[in-house]
Amino acid sequence: MNEKINTFLNSGLLDKYLIGTTTPAETEKVEVYISKYPEVQNAYTTMQFNLEIVAKSNAEEAPKHILNNILEELDEKPVFSLTRDKSTKYKSWYKFAVAASIVALLFAGTSIYFYNQNLMLHNETLVVDEEIDDLRSDIEQNNKMLGDVMRQLLKLNNPETEKYIISGNERAKNLKTVAYINPKEKTTMIDVVSLPQLPEEQCYQIWAELQGRMVSLGILNEADRQLKAIPYTEDALGLNITIEPKGGNVIASTENTVAEINL
Hints:
Helix 3 (24-36) crosses helix 4 (38-57), helix 4 packs across helix 6 (93-157) and helix 5 packs antiparallel against helix 6 (93-157). The protein is of the alpha+beta class. The protein has helices at residues 3-9, 13-18, 24-36, 38-57, 66-73, 93-157, and strands spanning 162-167, 176-182, 187-194, 202-210, 213-220, 227-230, 238-245, 257-262. The strands form two sheets. The protein has a four-stranded antiparallel beta sheet with strand order 1-2-3-6. Strands 5-4-7-8 form a four-stranded antiparallel beta sheet, with no helix packed on it.
């Protein structure tokens, strides 16, 4: 790989392009490199695959109807207009007094009506303000999630990160997990792809194999399928997955091993 391509791959532009944060000039540059250099195209394809893994692990159901509710609340209110009837000039003071009383009653009733309308509008405005605050909170949470996704993506795309596919043996043929280990940064992440169902009183537990002993790295759960960090073990010789009693075990039941790899 020549120096020009290596410099481009280490610039981080591919990561930015993948999540849509490049400038127009950066976008044009990235697309030229992808179309021109097979090494860049292969790196981009790998990063797309890694992004799918990260997105799956951070997937969350979006908030329901918040925006629609706000738009509905912000619709224009009906405009009420008062038409003033022309009063007939009465010759009798009595009739004039009756008319004045009716007008006063109408004015009082209209004032009460508009007061109630204003009170309702005020209450609706408070509801809209609360929903806008909720929307802002959701935006902040989504931005934080995007930052987490970016950090996980950078870890997966790090040249120092090694990928290990762990498949089950005859006892668990459908078991499949993927481990990502970076010995330089001392990080380990695991993606649970599929785990055969176990009885309620049992669970899957993952172990790091050291010289003469096994160290527990946690319990694997089908209901918690996501890319997650597990403890990094220095000088580990391999990874093992065993079937243990519910809640996990202190000592690995090696006779119940369903998957293992050498590192």
